[in-house]
Amino acid sequence: MTTGTTSPTTSSPAPVGTSRPAWPAHLLVVAGYLGLAVVLTSGQWGHPWRLFHQAGDQILFEWMLAHAAHAVVEGENPLYSAGLNAPDGVNLMANTSVLGLGVPLTPVTVLFGSQVAFCVVVVCCLAGTAVAWYALLRRRLVNSRSAAAVGGLVCGFAPGMVAQAGAHPHIAAQFLVPPILALVFRPGTDAARRRVVRSGVGLGLLLVWQVFIGEEVLVFLALAAGVFALGYALADRVAARRLAPALLGRLAVAAGVAVLLLAYPLWFQFHGPQHYAGMAFATHGFQLDAASFPASARQTVLGDDWLPGLLAPNPTEENSFFGPGLLVLAVVIVIWQWRRPLVRALAGCGVVFALLSLGNELRVDGNATAIPGPYRLVAALPLLDLAVPARFALVCVPVLGVLVALSLDRVRAAPGSMVASGPPVRLLWAGAVTAALLPLVPTPIRVVPVAPVPAFVSDGGWRALVPPGRTVVAVPPVTGAGRSPVMLWSARTGLAFTAPGGYFIGPSGPDDPAARWGAPDRPTSVLLRRVAETGAVPVLTDADRRQAVEDRAALARRGGRARLAGAR
Q: Does one domain contain both 419 and 518?
């Protein structure tokens, strides 16, 4: 690749001087990624009553995977389910239903259950993302297979990716990001310009698939691609003008395809049954501390539980935590290769999103500084007002991975080339990269125990007590954002029964579309939950008894009679 003038879409020249097939090396890289992902999920394989540490989130996504399989097998509408929040149901297009993962994995879910399907999803999220970035790097940006492999490793297994994978697979599933970028930023050749329609159709189909995996990643991808394209255009105006017509043509075709295929699902999301407006929590409160970037995350070889707890909103949002070594390395790479427009555009993109992740007010070492954060400038914009600021730092992950790969490729350039380096320089740089990445080596995702599904539920004892049209009510019922046992029971039994409540986002009421977690609380639900949480048995009054009857009647009036199965 030529310094200073090469487009980010220009394919790298093929390696010279070897006739050996490349596929064994590629398979070795893929097997390495898969092996690492399996090790990271090892706490659950063969242990049905363990969940990853954010257990409530895993229960949610196990249920979503079970629902996707149930919808495919039964031929039901995958965008809606009455299996939860009976009798009103849940708008699953407006929730993180991960249909783009659950539908393809239907055979796994049906044959092996929701827990195995969830673990397979986590493995595919981590290893699949790494493989996709490896393929893009190898085909477009670097000649060295080892450089691409290291870059893919960073992109797929950075601390933020591992933190998200165990709880938010819709965020960690980024294996479509590289192929989408590959179609957006195609090489500026005559053949590529003639294939605008074909590339646009492929891009549109990938965008649709990504919507059904997670819309949030697609929003971040669009923003990052826009910032990168602007940075590259400023760095190399000649190339930008040459590539712009074909790029805009592909985007126009892709937009047409996506709008056509997503018209009904998006209408259902925003106007269908149980749609809601806004967000159920204050997203701007989830921001990163500036000191988190050079710190170590929990699930790394140098991590601990204390410091990350001060610098990130919760264990799943440790999206920075790159360590001092990798950050210093990135600065050196940018200074060293500053003449390359690609490097300048990557650096600018990374800095922008790192700053946005700091939220409305800069915090350092857990202390508020009263210094306004850049996020304030965009916080009121549509879509961005619903984004979690801490997740902007995930854009920095592929930026750092690509920079590391470019640097390794530069020092490993073929002998005789203008950028070739001698063995001492190669060895020194390989050592620097190793030293920067070793502290980021991930450890297996932590697990916590969970109560088994009661035999009364798993063996079907409830069936004799719950005629068709009635529901199973767990005691105490969960109607807010808490961990929902009934969702786990439902997922592990293949959605065999319907239940009120659950862990989802829905409207606050029939005439109030404001978003809230779960179904509106009934007084009896609050009473039962308080008993379960405190262990204190209250003195029940006639008023409590009348309220219980009224609550049951209210549930019946909303769409069907409920039978209290008493499962514990």
A: no
Q: In the structure, what pLDDT confidence band is assigned to residue 475 with cuts at 50, 70 and 90?
A: confident
For residues 205 and 231, state if they share a domain.
yes
Final residue in a domain of this structure, among 388, 414, 440? 440
291 and 411 share a domain? Answer: yes
Radius of gyration of the chain (CA): 25
Residue-level pLDDT at 523: 85
Q: How far apart are CA 44 and CA 319, in angstroms?
A: 23
Instruction: Determine how many CB atoms are found less than 10 A away from the CB of residue 74.
Output: 8
In a domain, 88, yes or no: no
Per DSSP, what are the bridge partners of residue 80? 91
Q: Tell whether 475 and 413 lie within a shared domain.
A: no
Q: Are residues 407 and 269 in the same domain?
A: yes
3-state helix, strand, coil in the chain (%, to 5): 55, 5, 35
Domain membership of residue 87 (yes or no) is no
Contact 340, 3 (CB under 8 A): yes
3-class state of residue 256 by DSSP? helix
487 falls within a domain: yes
Give the domain extent around 538: 455-557
pLDDT of amino acid 554 = 65
CB 504 within 8 A of CB 518: yes
Q: What is the pLDDT of residues 260-297, one digit of tens each?
A: 999 999 999 999 999 999 887 777 789 999 999 999 99
Ramachandran class of 84: left when φ > 0, alpha when ψ lies in -120 to 50, beta otherwise: beta
Distance between CA atoms of residues 560 and 88, nearest Å: 9
Which pLDDT value is given to residue 143?
93
Same domain for 345 and 253, yes or no, is yes
HSE toward the beta carbon, residue 333, CA cutoff 13 A: 28
Where helices occur in 448-522 by DSSP H, the ranges are 455-458, 485-492
Longest dimension (CA), the chain: 92
In a shared domain, residues 350 and 493: no
> 464 and 425, same structural domain?
no
- Whole-prediction pTM: 0.91
Structure tokens at 39: 């090790």
Confidence class for position 557, pLDDT limits 50, 70, 90: very low
Q: What is the pLDDT of residues 311-350, one digit of tens each?
A: 999 999 999 999 999 999 999 999 999 999 999 999 999 9
User: Strand pairing partners for 505?
Assistant: 517
Look at the chain and report how many structural domains it folds into: 2
Dump pLDDT digits (tens) for 20-37. 678 889 999 999 999 999
Q: Note the pLDDT tens digit of each residue in 519-545.
A: 777 788 888 878 877 888 888 899 989
Between the CA of residue 246 and those of 237, 251, 259, 280, what are the distances in Å?
A: 15, 9, 20, 41
